[in-house]
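User: Structure please.
Assistant: Input sequence and predicted structure:
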Amino acid sequence: MKAIALSNKGLEDISALEIKELIDVKTEIKDSVVLFDATEEELALLSYKGQSFKRIMIYLGEFSVNDSEDFAKVSKIDFSKWLANDKTFAVRTEIILNENFCTQEVEYETGSNIKTDSKVELKNPDVTIFAYIFENNGYIGIDFSGDIAKRDYKIYTSRHDLKGNIAYALARLSGYDGSSDKIFANPLCTNGTIAVEAALFGTGKSVNFFNKEKFPFLKFFAFDLSKFDSEEKEAKVIAFDWQFGHVKASRNNAKIAGIELNALKSDIGWIKNSFKENEADCIAANLPHTKLVDIAQQGKELFSMAKSVLKKNGKIAVCSSALELKDIASEHGFSLADERDIVNGKEVLKIATFLNK
């Protein structure tokens, strides 16, 4: 069965890596999507344990989208397998980097071109047909997972927070592979999203452990997701922040996620004295994107700390809009290893990974 994973533009390689790790299949990367073949059980596994995806879909077709007439191509797609036996349906959509269409228009044009006698049910459909538009590329599929970038553990929020799937990708870009002997550090943890994502990955616990009934595929594919739960591993993840309110929020969100997080209030001197010299294997941090915070000054403190606690050839991945971070990193003995723009709706995030030389 052909399937498609929706990712963020700029993070497709992380999603392809996760697909490889979880179900070991070949993938094809396109802008903001990853295509692959999988069984229904494998798609259930990706939906349940995947952390980098926005959505998993059963692939039905794709076409160029330039004007409303292009949606007539939807009429050539056979929906009979999914809309048989009087199943109700609804059309949902996500549009990225295309201002020619609005949500209502795409849903109407898609729905009106579906050849079926099945009835539309907007509130609680048996099947959700999803139309994904990225720039001028359109993809049609059956929504298998629902929105899995949303994290139910994030009760304590921050306006500077990252989405869960982007926070997970940031941890992976730092070189964290979930090994029990690796020490992962998350300074400036705010509400703990980066650290929680790393800890869930390291322990092997699903981000959806407490939400096994949430997935759309359960309406047409009965499956016991507890089959994918296994004994949790040890994860050495440390989060710290200068503000106690952030530390408390991180601990509380971790508790809701079902993990224990070593979240600590600290200052730069405390951090340097609490780690053995060059003990951490990888670091990931999100510097707040606000004029009220001196990002450059925080960058200097961050790389000064990282130089003391990060192993030689260890990596630090930073999400920040401050271009001067490259110069600050270089001044502290770090070289640029990777740089990328991440499309997050209408926002573009910048992630840079530096190597401790």
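The longest strand covers residues 334-344.
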